[in-house]
TrEMBL record:
Species name: Oncorhynchus tshawytscha
Biological or metabolic pathway of the protein: Lipid metabolism; polyunsaturated fatty acid biosynthesis
Gene name tied to this protein: LOC112264870
InterPro entries with a match to the protein in the record: Cyt_B5-like_heme/steroid-bd, FA_desaturase_dom, Fatty_acid_desaturase
Family membership noted in the UniProt record: Belongs to the fatty acid desaturase type 1 family.
Protein name per UniProt: Cytochrome b5 heme-binding domain-containing protein
Sequence intervals crossing the membrane: 141-164, 275-294, 314-336
Name of a matching Pfam family: FA_desaturase
Molecular function terms from GO: oxidoreductase activity, acting on paired donors, with oxidation of a pair of donors resulting in the reduction of molecular oxygen to two molecules of water
Length: 454
């Protein structure tokens, strides 16, 4: 949860502020940032959107995106995050009306924690331009063709077995094709997931369930609630689940030193750049994610997602049981997940793991996303291989933007970064992968130095 300190009693509106019609607080009250920032606890949460102050304490429990992602902005300005996550902000605003308790005092700045007002305004102007130029609108044909090539890969893999049988070479080729289709389906569900945050687009919501459930055997709600936290506060400890390494790794520059000073040694962290190859890429999807997905669906009684996931396994075993039997089919899907996991880990970590990983610093949206992301050079292969997540900067700044428009907004983002002196990092695919290992080694060395000498 955002913020710290002891929970405070409900305080009075800012000096000179209005009061509600019942003589108490109401939508006409005014507040200072100092007061808003006090309400950042699990049982007491306010946030600010477009200078309006909202009490989201009870609403957070019903938030469609999950309680955590909205709670990460408790006590803060959430304007840019609110716009970034909701394809139709006007639709969502009607849910905010009952939560309105006032607004910022006229003497208060629009930004909190001393953020650069000019930089924030320039980014918001860019966002308005992007929307006016239609760069947030998807082309159905693009995604239809993308879905078609995934289905074609699966059909070809099965067709090879029907025509030529189950030799070792054909089984391996079939596994590679299935792992490719699973990886590409992962990038496609990622697209639909971001566009289905607002359920007014019901067709897109169903497509997301179909792709992640029927084509991948996973849970849409599990992915949404996990991944949106990553976008809300990327590379922020306790807020981004992607940097919650469960004591297996130490990440960034600060966590290793903190662990070293406290003499914490859950693993031999100075060797983490080596055991990463044994724990990270091979096990994330077939072990960690698989367990977490089913555990989440059962614990949250998410029977709809469970039903979608079961259609994947039913289809898979119906198709491959005649060739491999039950245990052979289990071995096949396990090997496919093993291959897919390597692909997934390298693509997702090459943009983030070598970047800044830190505790909450209350940065503005533009600075926060740039410090946690980098791009990979554009090429036809890189676009396909990464599901266009080689444009990670643009994706994080505009998470609801369809991937086929990233290259169009990239020059505008780069120009904005140059204006404000912000780093806009672009790497080759090879360097990005090497940097993942290098960052782990650097963090491990920092831990060892602190563990031995501090």
């Amino acid at each position: 949860m955002g913020g710290g300190g002891q929970q405070t009693e409900s305080s009075e509106p800012a000096k000179g502020g209005g009061v509600g019609p019942d003589g108490g607080r109401g939508g006409s009250a005014v507040y200072t940032w100092e007061e808003v920032q006090k309400h950042c606890h699990r049982s007491d949460q306010w946030l600010v959107i477009d200078r309006k102050v909202y009490n989201i304490t009870q609403w957070a429990k019903r938030h469609p995106g999950g309680i955590r992602v909205i709670s990460h902005f408790a006590g803060e300005d959430a304007t840019d995050a609110f716009v970034a996550f909701h394809p139709d902000p006007n639709f969502v605003r009607k849910f905010l009306k009952p939560l309105l308790i006032g607004e910022l005092a006229p003497t208060e700045p629009s930004q909190d924690h001393g953020k650069n007002a000019v930089m924030v305004q320039d980014f918001q102007a860019l966002r308005d331009r992007v929307e006016k130029e239609g760069l947030l609108r998807a082309r159905p044909l693009f995604f239809s063709l993308y879905l078609g090539h995934i289905v074609l890969l699966e059909a070809l893999a099965l067709g090879l077995l029907w025509v030529w049988g189950t030799s070792w070479s054909l089984t391996l080729l079939c596994s590679l094709m299935l792992a490719t289709s699973q990886s590409q389906a992962g990038w496609l569900q990622h697209d639909y997931g971001h566009l289905s945050v607002c359920k007014t687009s019901s067709w897109n919501h169903v497509l997301h369930k179909f792709v992640i459930g029927h084509l991948k055997g996973a849970s849409a709600n599990w992915w949404n609630h996990r991944h949106f936290q990553h976008h809300a506060k990327p590379n922020v400890f306790s807020k981004d689940p992607d940097v919650n390494s469960l004591h297996v790794f130490v990440l960034g520059d600060k966590q290793p030193v903190e662990y070293g000073i406290k003499k914490l040694k859950y693993m031999p962290y100075h060797h983490q750049h080596q055991y990463f190859f044994l724990i990270g890429p091979p096990l994330v999807i077939p072990v960690f994610f698989t367990i977490q997905i089913f555990q989440t669906m059962f614990s949250q009684r998410n029977w709809v997602d469970l039903a979608w996931a079961m259609t994947f396994y039913l289809r898979f075993f119906c198709c491959y049981y005649p060739f491999f039997g039950f245990f052979g089919s289990v071995a096949l899907i396990s090997f496919v997940r093993f291959l897919e996991s390597h692909w997934f880990v390298w693509v997702t970590q090459m943009n983030h793991l070598p970047m800044e990983i830190d505790h909450e610093r209350h940065q503005d949206w533009l600075t926060m996303q740039l410090s946690a992301t980098c791009n990979i050079e554009q090429s036809t292969f890189n676009d396909w291989f990464s599901g266009h997540l080689n444009f990670q900067i643009e994706h994080h700044l505009f998470p609801t933007m369809p991937r086929h428009n990233y290259h169009m907004v990239a020059p505008l983002v780069r120009a904005l970064c140059e204006k404000h002196g912000l780093p806009y990092q672009v790497k080759t695919l090879q360097k990005a992968i090497i940097d993942v290992v290098g960052s782990l080694k650097k963090s491990g060395d920092l831990w060892l130095d602190a563990y031995l000498h501090k």
